[in-house]
Structures are given as structure tokens and as C-alpha cells.
Design brief:
A alpha/beta; B alpha/beta; C alpha/beta; A: alpha/beta; about 20% strand; B: seven-stranded mixed β-sheet; 14 strands
């Protein structure tokens, strides 16, 4: 199993946290994983993007040309990266902010109203990134939701409210991902 | 081995230094290695050491010089433009035979360049960089765990040879996060580059001449013939290092029709390309020097006995390729060999597909 | 009938800056550009940009600009002025560039009395690299390299550049202003105008230090930042004119 994942959106959407979480969870599960951040020049509101590889063997290339999976949190991200996925790739799209197809898209699109789902959990600071991550885990591609839950438990052990909301967001996304992947 | 952790390269390097008993760190902010001073500012005091943010990279290397003079294990880190500033200090350390570790997390250059990963300081690191006849031991890791291991080795080799040692990383290795296993320092002194050799006492360090004649550390040698003698003494040391320390990773070269050569991140990507080529029935090998100085010429020359096609993959305009040519020329005429280059200067990181494509071109 | 009361100065390019919201650079750029343009000097101006957030100053300033290596800006400016003595030469620098790595360069340019004008933006940290300690960081201030707050016993007190430079005979004008209130913004412009006039009259070195804001690295909102400047930073970095040998009437 070798999965090359891109998560992209804007600064402030928790892209980097999400990528790190996924990579840590994969390692917790006994897989190999790499996480590489990437930032635009602006400190706020600029593009934010990360590359994650999860595999059951040594990882040599932590950056790649054709992601297998792309989590598109907003339209700018979709416009920029969607065409890099080949036919066999899967794009999880936040239809609330990234609903427009981009030129050159050929991968399968799984859309979910992630912003709205996230706002249901916390309107002020919607955990959009975790809803999207949950949806990816619902596709059951190798990294288990249990591992991610365990990471969240460990990370937010001292903050039960935040932990609860994050776990909820993850589960909401997971349900969506599972139902759409059947 | 301690339990695996998941860490950023820059932070793993800092942690490894502390586990190797480095208790003095001097640095200055520059992207993409800012996590090093930030981590050190927190962790050094915890470990009972000293962190000092210097006023510049120039001051920082001179602080490393000072800590070394006083007998301590000290480190500085920076990225390309900042390493340029350190060259004078490094030359002084080599001249005075002082141990110290300098980490270069390379970014795109020349000039202010950009903050993306590159390998364009290979010449600077291995050909001197600073003035005069001296050599720097240069270690090039390709994974975060290897970065941690070689950082620990760097302190041991610096003390063993009384010479500055450089860790040559790049912005990708520095910024990425992956699993890292820190070796137990005791065990690493046996299994790492020190190979269990006893470290000489620092009986040259300046600690105050109590009950002993005063010691002197200097590199100004004005008396006729003295500097020449000192240079030959250094040369003798470097010859020993060239004899005893070269190290390379060699994969699948025994039957190879083409050998991919690279160091650090580009070699890691080339590992993937090699597997992809083999899967297509192409006999590809990989040569990855771990010590860039001393360069493992003999190991590469041995490969050149049976392989005549090489593709050097570097994130620069072609620097290590000159050492590849020198190695191959020991075994065959360069007219008989193909030594191609896949250059990625200015902050680009190659992907396996482009290495595969270029290899196929070389084989045509 | 409407009347245009305010417009973008021709001293700035017609573009949007990418500075963080609440950052003082945008305001400082405008004041400098207005002062230059209004004195008719735009096409005679050569500026030197620092390494720091304002490295991209040339994307906004509508005059000739060169980058310099980190901290070397005054040395580069000094040479430009010697080659082109009748041009208006500006060195625009931040905390790291001027007060840390470039301390030798600024002291010597000032001591030589180089006929350049230095605009020094003081926001008590290194912005571009993510908020490390600067020489201007306040005692006790938390930064990414002073996680427990700046310990003055081992890292010193905040460095007061305007006062330091004012002690040198080659410096003919040294002032400190601020950018967090409208009245102070207007005052800052007049400080810059005086400084430029000192250069134009060939009198010597001029410097205007501007206490600025960095909400992003301070971890505050812009309004909180304004309060921080007022309550904690200005008391440490007093505003005023520390030297004025311009011969013009006092403010």
C-alpha cells in the first residue's frame, strides 16, 4: 500500500495540522509516513498545502507529481492541483468552497458539504479540515480512523471540549466518505 | 534504540545534538532552518546547556570557535547565505584544529535565492568555501533518522580529528516530518562513524593555566617555514581521513547497466526511480555517498569497472558530478563512459518519473 | 460635485501589498513615498531594501531599488551615494537587518556621516522568519527563541537605536516616531520629511526610527497591538527628536 495525498486550501484552515495528524496516525498504526509542509509567502490567507505519503514500505519520494488523493478545501486549491491527479485518483472536494470543476480534471470527485457540516459543530471555528480528513478515512484506503482518533485523544487529552468537537467532526466526515464510497 | 518519534528534520537534528552531549548552540534565524534555534532555545536550557541567539551568522561561528577553544562540544546551524558568512570562521577553526559542528540546511541560491530546498552548496562544503588549504568533513543524510545519526557522529568525528564537521542537509529534509529513531549515544559511538575508537583528551583546551604552562590557540604563523609545516601537518591528517572515513551506500550495482548517483534528498528520490527502472527490467543501480568529503572515490571506481553509464541527479547545476568523473576516471577513460546530469537548480526537487525518463534517454 | 481629497501617491506603484493586516510597513511605505514624491525627488531616488518582511518593498515603491545582503544595506547605500551624490539615497531596514547583523554597518555609515536617510522599522521581533527575538525585543517578551520571555540578564535590554545613533557627530538628524495612531502617523511623515531635507542639504546622516506593529508574530489582533504599542512599547522606546542639526526651525 502506498498512498500519495495532497491537502490544500488557505492559511488558517488547519491544513498543516491535518496533514501532520494523518501522518502521525499512519505511523501509530505501524505504517511508514512522511509529511512535507508548503507555504505561500503571505503569513495569513495565502495558499497552504501539504504532501503526505502513507505506505507499508520505505518511502523514498515524499513529494510527487500525481497524487492518489487530493483533499480540496477551497476553490483556489482545486484550481491549482486538481489536474495533477490522474484518472485513477480521487478528489475529495468541499462543495461549499470548491464546487467548481477545474480545467483538466480527470479524477473521480467525491463532494461533500464540509463547511456546513463543520459549522454545525462549531460555528466560530469550524473544524473543516477534520471533516475532510474524516471523509478520506471513510474511503478506507489503509489508514484507519481508529488511529486518527487515538492521535486526537492523545493530542487533546487536556482539552476535553476541543477533543469532543474534533472527534465529532472526524466522524461526520467519515460517515459522508463511507456512504459515498459504496 | 529509543522508541520511534515523529519529528521534523530540523528538530530531530537539534535533539540528536543534545543527545550527543552538545551543550552549546549559537545560531541566527534564516529560513528553512528556524526550527533549529527555536527548538534549542527551549531544549538546551532543559538539558543544562546554553542557547544564545547570536547577532549574526558570523558572530555565531565565532562563538562556536570560542566554545571549542574552551573545550566544549558546540554547534551552529544556518542555510546557504548564512553559511557563506561562516566561511572565515570555519577556516580559522580548521587552521586551529578546533572541533565543532556546522549544519547547512540548503536553500536555493545564489544570492538571496529562495527558501526552497537545494543542494547548491556542495562545492562550498567540499572544496573549502573559506580561504586556505583546509578540509571539512561533510556528511550528507537522506532521511530524518540518518540526519539524527550523522549529527551524533559529527560531534564524535570532530573531537576525534580536531576538525570542524559539516552536516549538509536541505530544506526538504529540514522541514519534513517522519519517523525518527535516535540511537543510544553509547551504542552509536561503537556502531556509527567513530567505530568505537577512543576519543583523545582535550589537553589543548584553554581552561586557565593553573598548575601548568599556558596554552595557546592561534593560526598566525609568521616564522619562515612554520606555516608550510603546519599545512603539511594538516595534509597528513586529511590523508588519514581520506583513507579511513569514506562511506557510501551502494544498491544493486553489481549487475548494473546504469548507475544513478546522488546525495541526500536527490538520492532518496533516485532510490524510488531505481526500483521503478528495475520493475521495467532495466538493471539500474544506486550510488549514494554519505561522506561528501572524503568522497568515496574508491567505491565508485570499483563500480566503474563493470558499469560505464552514470546519471548524476543533483539539486544544483552540476557539482558532485565532478567527483563522479574523478572516480570513474580511475578505472576507465572518460571517453568510454557516459556521465549524464539531471540538474535541478533554484529550489526544485526531482520526482522519480523524471529520473526514470532521463535514465531511459541515457540508455538509448 | 465631488472633489478628490486623497489619492494613492505616485511614489507607490498601483498595486496591493501582501503585508499582514495591521502591519506597519504599508503605512511607512506610504509616508516615505509621499514625502519623496511631494518633494519632487521620486525620479532621483535610489532605495536599498533589506532582508526581512520589507524585502519586497520594490514591488510597492515607485523608484529605483536594490536588494542588499542581510544587514549590509547602509554599506550599499553609502556606496551608491558616493557614486551618485546628487541622488536621494534611502536605506529601509528592520530590527534584524539594522540592529543585529547590520549593527557595524549602520554605526559606521552614521559615524562617517554618510549623506543617506535610514528608515528603521522597529516591531520588536524578526517578522519574516516567524517571530524570533530581536535586539529590540522587550524584557520578558515571549518570542520563538525566548519561549519563557526575554531574559535581560543573559540577552540584554532592548537596544535603542535612535538614541545610540544620535550620539555620533556624523548624525545630523535622529528621531523616533510611531504608526499606531492617526496623529502619530502624520507626525511620522513630518519626521521623514525633515530627515530627507537633511540629506538634500548635504548636512549628514539622518535616521527615522518608527515603532511599528506586528500583530501576526505578537499573536494579537490589530486593536490589541495598538494597545500594546501604546502601553508597553512606547514607554521603552520614547518618541521624539533626539538630534536635529538641520538648522531649520524646531517642531
Amino acid at each position: 500500500m502506498l498512498e500519495q495525498i495532497i491537502i490544500a486550501g488557505s492559511g488558517g484552515q488547519g491544513i498543516q495540522f491535518c496533514g501532520q495528524l494523518l501522518a502521525r496516525a499512519a505511523v501509530r498504526q505501524g505504517l511508514e509516513a512522511t509529511y512535507v509542509p508548503s507555504y505561500g509567502a503571505e503569513r495569513r490567507g495565502g495558499p497552504s498545502f501539504c504532501s503526505v505519503v502513507a505506505a507499508d514500505r520505505s518511502i523514498y519520494a515524499s513529494l510527487f507529481k500525481h497524487p492518489d488523493i487530493f483533499l480540496a478545501l477551497d476553490q483556489r486549491a482545486r484550481n491549482q492541483y486538481a489536474s495533477s491527479l490522474l484518472n485513477a485518483g480521487i478528489m475529495l472536494v468541499n462543495t461549499d468552497l470548491a464546487g467548481q470543476p477545474a480545467t483538466g480534471e480527470q479524477a473521480r470527485v467525491i463532494g461533500l458539504s464540509a463547511s456546513r457540516l463543520a459549522e454545525k459543530i462549531n460555528f466560530e471555528q469550524p473544524p473543516l479540515n477534520l471533516v475532510m480528513l474524516g471523509a478520506y478515512l471513510g474511503l478506507d484506503r489503509g489508514v484507519s480512523i481508529e488511529a486518527v482518533r487515538a492521535e486526537l485523544e492523545a493530542r487533546f487529552a487536556g482539552k476535553p471540549d476541543v477533543k469532543q468537537r474534533n472527534l465529532q467532526a472526524l466522524d461526520l466526515g467519515w460517515e459522508e466518505g463511507r456512504s459515498q464510497s459504496r | 534504540m529509543s522508541a520511534p518519534m515523529f519529528m521534523k528534520g530540523n528538530e530531530a537534528m537539534a535533539e540528536a545534538a543534545i543527545r550527543a552531549d552538545c551543550r552549546f548552540y549559537f545560531g541566527y534565524p534564516i529560513t528553512p532552518q528556524n526550527e533549529v534555534p527555536a527548538y534549542m532555545s527551549r531544549r538546551m536550557p532543559e538539558a543544562g546547556g546554553t542557547f544564545l541567539q547570536a547577532e549574526s551568522e558570523l558572530a555565531a561561528i565565532n562563538m562556536v570557535f570560542g566554545a571549542a577553544v574552551a573545550g566544549a562540544r558546540a554547534m551552529t546551524s544556518s542555510s546557504s547565505p548564512g553559511i557563506s558568512l561562516k566561511q572565515e570562521g570555519i577556516s580559522y577553526m580548521a587552521a586551529c584544529e578546533l572541533p565543532g559542528v556546522i549544519a547547512n540546511i540548503m536553500r536555493g541560491g545564489p544570492g538571496l535565492g529562495n527558501i526552497s530546498p537545494s543542494q547548491s552548496d556542495y562545492f562550498q562544503a567540499t572544496r573549502g568555501g573559506g580561504h586556505g588549504d583546509y578540509r571539512l568533513i561533510v556528511l550528507a543524510p537522506h532521511t530524518v533518522t540518518e540526519l539524527a545519526e550523522l549529527t551524533m557522529d559529527a560531534f564524535d568525528l570532530a573531537d576525534y580529528y580536531r576538525n570542524p564537521v559539516m552536516i549538509l542537509g536541505d530544506g526538504l529534509l529540514g522541514q519534513m516530518m517522519e519517523k525518527v529513531e535516535f540511537p543510544e549515544p553509547e551504542a552509536r559511538r561503537r556502531t556509527g562513524l567513530l567505530r568505537g575508537r577512543p576519543l583523545p583528551p582535550k589537553d589543548w583546551a584553554l581552561t586557565g593555566a593553573q598548575g601548568r604552562p599556558p596554552r595557546l590557540i592561534r593560526s598566525l604563523l609568521m616564522q619562515p617555514g612554520v606555516l608550510e609545516q603546519h599545512n603539511f601537518h594538516l595534509a597528513e591528517k586529511y590523508a588519514r581521513i581520506e583513507r579511513d572515513e569514506p562511506l557510501a551506500e551502494v544498491i544493486g550495482c553489481e549487475d548494473a547497466d546504469v548507475v544513478l548517483a546522488g546525495f541526500g534528498t536527490s538520492a532518496r528520490v533516485a532510490k524510488q526511480a531505481r526500483e521503478m527502472l528495475r520493475a521495467r527490467g532495466i538493471k539500474a543501480g544506486l550510488f549514494r555517498p554519505i561522506t561528501l568529503w572524503p568522497f568515496p572515490y574508491a567505491q565508485l571506481a570499483a563500480i566503474a569497472r563493470t558499469t560505464r553509464r552514470f546519471l548524476v541527479v543533483e539539486m544544483n547545476l552540476g557539482q558532485m558530478i565532478e567527483d563522479v568523473q574523478l572516480a570513474v576516471a580511475r578505472e576507465r577513460s572518460l571517453k568510454d563512459a557516459t556521465i549524464a546530469l539531471l540538474p535541478r537548480p533554484g529550489g526544485g526537487v526531482p520526482v522519480p518519473e523524471e529520473i526514470v525518463d532521463k535514465t531511459l534517454e541515457v540508455l538509448r | 460635485m465631488s472633489r478628490q481629497l486623497f489619492a494613492r501617491t505616485p511614489g507607490l506603484k498601483d498595486t496591493v501589498t501582501t503585508y499582514c493586516s495591521g502591519c506597519g510597513h504599508g503605512v511607512a511605505h506610504r509616508l516615505l513615498a509621499e514625502a519623496i514624491e511631494e518633494s519632487g525627488a521620486r525620479e532621483r531616488t535610489v532605495a536599498v531594501a533589506p532582508v526581512g518582511c520589507a524585502v519586497y518593498g520594490y514591488d510597492y515603491w515607485n523608484f529605483d531599488t536594490t536588494e542588499a545582503a542581510h544587514g549590509r544595506t547602509p554599506a550599499v547605500a553609502a556606496a551608491i551615494k558616493r557614486v551618485l551624490p546628487d541622488r536621494l539615497v534611502i536605506s529601509y531596514q528592520g530590527d534584524g537587518d539594522l540592529a543585529s547583523i547590520g549593527l557595524a554597518e549602520i554605526m559606521h555609515a552614521a559615524n562617517r556621516g554618510d549623506r543617506i536617510t535610514v528608515i528603521f522599522i522597529n516591531n520588536t521581533n524578526y517578522g519574516m522568519t516567524g517571530g524570533q527575538m530581536a535586539p529590540t525585543t522587550l524584557a520578558g517578551q515571549v518570542t520563538t527563541t525566548t519561549p519563557l520571555g526575554r531574559d535581560s540578564a543573559t540577552t540584554g535590554q532592548p537596544l535603542k537605536v535612535a538614541e545610540l545613533l544620535a550620539t555620533l557627530p556624523g548624525v545630523k538628524y535622529a528621531a523616533r516616531g510611531a504608526l499606531h495612531k492617526p496623529g502619530l502617523v502624520r507626525k511620522a511623515k513630518s519626521l521623514i520629511q525633515k530627515a530627507l531635507a537633511v540629506q538634500e542639504a548635504g548636512l549628514g546622516f539622518s535616521v527615522v526610527e518608527l515603532v511599528s506593529l506586528c500583530p501576526t508574530n505578537w499573536g494579537l489582533t490589530t486593536l490589541q497591538s495598538v494597545e500594546l504599542v501604546e502601553k508597553q512599547i512606547v514607554p521603552v522606546f520614547p518618541l521624539g527628536v533626539f538630534k536635529d542639526e538641520s538648522g531649520a526651525k524646531a517642531e
